[in-house]
Amino acid sequence: MIDLRKTPRLVATDLDGTLVRSDESVSPRSMAALKRLAASGVIVVGATGRGPRLLDLCRNDVPSADYLVLGQGAFVYECRYDDTVVEMANRSVDGEVLHTALRRIEQRVGPLRALAEPADPDRHITGDEMPNWPWPTVTLMTAPRHEAFRGPMVKGYFVSDEHSGPDLLTAAQEVVDTDRVTVTESGVGILEVCPVGVNKAAGIQVVLDKFDIDWDDVLVLGDATNDLPMLRSAGHAVAMPDAHPWVKQAADEIAPAGNDDDGVAQYIEALLEML
Predict the structure, then answer these.
(1) Where are the alpha helices (DSSP H) in 55-164?
(2) Residues 6+ apart with CB under 8 A from 102
(3) Using CA atoms, how far apart are residues 101 and 103, in angstroms rounded to an integer?
(4) Residue range 174-211, pLDDT digits in tens
(5) What proportions of the chain, in percent to the nearest 5, are helix, strand and coil?
(6) Where are the domains of the chain?
(7) Are the CB atoms for 241 and 257 separated by under 8 Å?
(8) Which pLDDT score, from 0 to 100, does residue 1 have?
(9) Alpha-carbon distance 11 to 79, whole Å?
(10) Spatial distance between the Cα atoms of 53 and 122, rounded to a whole number of angstroms
């Protein structure tokens, strides 16, 4: 049984750690549940920190999604029935702005490993050596920072050998220029520095504006601190059982199971019984 006071017009789900399993796959059960949800007339949105260079992977993970919010909310895509994709939002930040934020954070916490993700998909993610990079399918290049942080960027990735991701986030929030960048953390120990005003709620807002939908009619599911803006905005927020404590505190309820046990599918199947 789920604790939902009204049926939503839009459902947005995070991908990694929420819908996607730890083996980087999405189960057939989850695929089927999302397909049924979309067929019922509910707008389905996939919301992720993954950058636009992983658009095809996101479409494969959530083929029933009508819209995809990528890059922590900087990029929004409409996925049409004929397999075409229409870009609805595209925001970047100058690399030197990220480099300045990096210097400020290092002054506070000490040395960091840093990568820059260019807005140009033909340029690789570039910067320092990153031995524990969690996405092996994404090619990294090593280069001096003055070369890496050059031109329009999707975001910067900063990692500390001494501080956890949430601790790094707390420190960064105290020193970065919030009029120029937004900082977040996606649950894998990496601080992400994005264009100002960018978060998953802002990305979803682009879709809401298209259909004149209020946040009260939105249901979201997530697990990491980068999901907090959409969880706090939504009419109903669902956290995964192993979500960060901040996420659980912001949620209205907890999913019946984790991402490896089809928690999103179980929740949506219960939701479908209400429709």
Answers:
(1) 55-61, 95-109, 145-148
(2) 112, 114, 145, 149, 156, 158, 193
(3) 5
(4) 999 999 999 999 888 899 999 999 999 999 999 999 99
(5) 35, 25, 40
(6) 10-91+198-272, 93-195
(7) yes
(8) 64
(9) 15
(10) 9
CB 129, CB 142: distance < 8 Å? yes
Q: How many CA atoms lie within 13 A of 270 on its CB side?
A: 13
The distance between the two most distant Cα atoms of the chain, rounded to a whole number of Å, is: 55
| Pairwise CA distance, residues 102 & 114, whole Å | 8
Q: How far apart are CA 137 and CA 150, in angstroms?
A: 23
- CATH topology for the 93-195 domain: 3.30.1240
d(CA 195, CA 115) in angstroms, rounded, equals 15
pLDDT digits (tens, 9 = 90+) for 227-255: 999 999 999 999 999 999 999 999 999 99
Question: Under 8 Å CB-to-CB from 138, ≥6 apart: which residues?
Answer: 53, 54, 125
Do domains 10-91+198-272 and 93-195 share one topology? The answer is no
- Residue of 268, 270, 189, 254 lying closest to 225 (CA atoms): 189
Compute the distance between CA of residue 189 and CA of residue 172 in angstroms, rounded to an integer.
Answer: 13
Looking at the chain, the number of H-run helices and the number of E-run strands are 9, 15
Q: Quote the tokens at residue 156.
A: 């910067």
DSSP 234: S
Domain 10-91+198-272 indexed as CATH 3.30.310.70 = no
Torsions phi, psi for 46 (to 5 deg) = -95, 125
